Amino acid sequence: MSSKTKIVLIGFLAVLTIAQLYLLKSMHYTTSSISWFEVDEGLKQADPSPDFEIGNLEFDLDAYTKASELQAFREFFSKYCEGRKGIEAASCMSETLVDKVPFGEPSEEVFTPGYDPVANFKAHLK
Prior knowledge:
Distance between the termini: 70 Å
Structural class: mainly alpha
Largest sheet: 2 strands, antiparallel
Mean pLDDT: 83
Number of helices: 6
Radius of gyration: 26 Å
Low-confidence stretches: none
Helix content: 55-70%
């Protein structure tokens, strides 16, 4: 390969790299923003509610703690992960379910009419 061809090839690759970087920069969710605030501002904010939202889904934790349909899940959590919170509780539940739930084809599909998550959950624990 001649030196002239190498220079043209390097120039072409440089132009492609710049074009790719420009395209990447123009895409959504490729940049971040850092906002500074004083520690006092953070301390003055109200304590967060235990309820939370993910997108337009709202989770009313008070309703979940009282729902009789979820008693089997609460008992399972109390048996295996009592006293844990946050990521530690989620990890405990995940690891425990991995040990309890068999791998393979599900016996019942979640989207089947009449699917009962509590009955399905109890069946996994047998």
